[in-house]
Design brief:
Blueprint lengths: L1 H37 L1 H32 L6 H19 L7 H30 L8 H22 L4 E2 L8 E4 L2 E4 H23 L1 H11 L1 H6 L4 H27 L1 E2 L3 H16 L4 H20 L9 H15 L14
Helix pairs in contact: 1-2, 2-6, 2-9, 2-10, 2-11, 3-4, 3-5, 3-9, 3-10, 4-9, 6-7, 6-9, 7-9, 10-11, 11-12
Length: 344
């Protein structure tokens, strides 16, 4: 009888979950269809804007999910590292190389800055792992978590001293204006976001799935002790993972600074929280899930903020986190996450 009762509960729960998901998808699709009919061009524009924001969130979210996937640590300092990357980019381009307009030399400096900021943030992240997290790997999980929060405040303080307490605006080297196609206006900054971000995401996928170091990362994520027995240098692999995550944060910082034209010392908290939410929504530890969650959040924000029928920008975060809470209630592992068994 107990077994029958348990199976009945499971079937009932699955029925409720599927019914709720069907109603939610149908309601959302109806809302999007109404907006598409009302203003097709506006719908297309805000969709591309949402995708642009989503791939920016994906660059940051991948750093969270890479580190969690290999040592099960939520690196709360990662968002502030993104902020530091934006500050470095602004000073590198505007003050150190004195570039404020879109010119041929400016584009060369922009590419040079991309390499420099990825190296800058990657080295900082490796240093954080070496001196703050490495000794705490076998400590109770609360210890590295508190350390990560502490590192976040330290980096914020550096950003405060470097940028000041207020918001600063910077000139952009990206061309202004829009590309018009079939009545749809697409800002050049949005198109450049795709041009920069998609190759970076493809390169990350290649590194993780095709290279020897990527195989070492996946092996270390599964079992560190077995990886050591197979001759893998676990410390070097974990440092490489932190460096890779830091490089992605640096690229995101440059992209944000050039497309938005501003920096502020607490920017990492705001966007870092959204990126972490994206990683959780997609399934923390899953690279494809982090990208999927980030794109979904970017689209939800874009549609809610820019469509004719929507709650408006002031409700944007409320809508995103309400969807996240509902998703976590019915699917705690995220969209692409898999149930994890505790290792003993």
């Amino acid at each position: 009888m107990a077994g029958v009762t348990y199976k009945t509960r499971q079937l009932r729960r699955r029925y409720v979950e599927r019914s709720f998901a069907t109603i939610a998808v149908a309601g959302g699709s109806f809302w999007l269809l109404i907006n598409l009919i009302k203003s097709p061009s506006q719908f297309t524009e805000v969709t591309f804007t949402g995708l642009s924001n989503g791939i920016l969130y994906a660059l940051i979210a991948l750093g969270y999910t890479l580190v969690y996937g290999i040592i099960e640590l939520i690196n709360f300092a990662h968002g502030d590292l993104f902020m530091l990357g934006g500050l470095f980019s602004a000073h590198f381009i505007t003050l150190w190389f004195n570039q404020n307009h879109p010119t041929g030399a400016g584009y060369g400096v922009l590419l040079l800055c991309l390499v420099a900021v990825m190296a800058f943030c990657g080295i900082i992240n490796v240093g954080i792992e070496r001196f703050a997290y490495r000794r705490l790997r076998r400590a109770p999980k609360l210890a590295p978590l508190i350390t990560a929060v502490g590192m976040s405040f330290i980096i914020q303080f550096v950003g405060l001293r470097w940028n000041g307490s207020g918001q600063k605006t910077w000139p952009s080297l990206l061309p202004a204006g829009n590309l018009k196609f079939l009545g749809v206006r697409l800002p050049y900054t949005t198109l450049i976001s795709f041009i920069v971000t998609i190759p970076v995401l493809l390169a990350l996928t290649y590194i993780v799935t095709q290279t020897k170091q990527g195989k070492a990362m996946r092996a270390t994520a599964q079992d560190q002790d077995a990886s050591r027995l197979m001759g893998i240098n676990v410390n070097r692999t974990i440092s490489f993972t932190f460096g890779l995550g830091g490089a992605l944060a640096g690229a995101a910082g440059l992209l944000f600074e050039q497309t938005r034209g501003l920096t502020t010392y607490n920017l990492g908290y705001q966007l870092g929280l959204i990126a972490f939410t994206a990683a959780v929504m997609g399934g923390i530890g899953n690279l494809q899930g982090a990208v999927l969650g980030a794109v979904i959040i970017g689209l939800i924000q874009g549609w809610n903020d820019g469509l004719p029928i929507g709650l408006g920008q002031q409700w944007s975060n409320t809508v995103v986190f309400s969807i996240l809470i509902l998703l976590m209630v019915f699917k705690p592992t995220g969209l692409l996450g898999k149930p994890m068994t505790e290792k003993v």
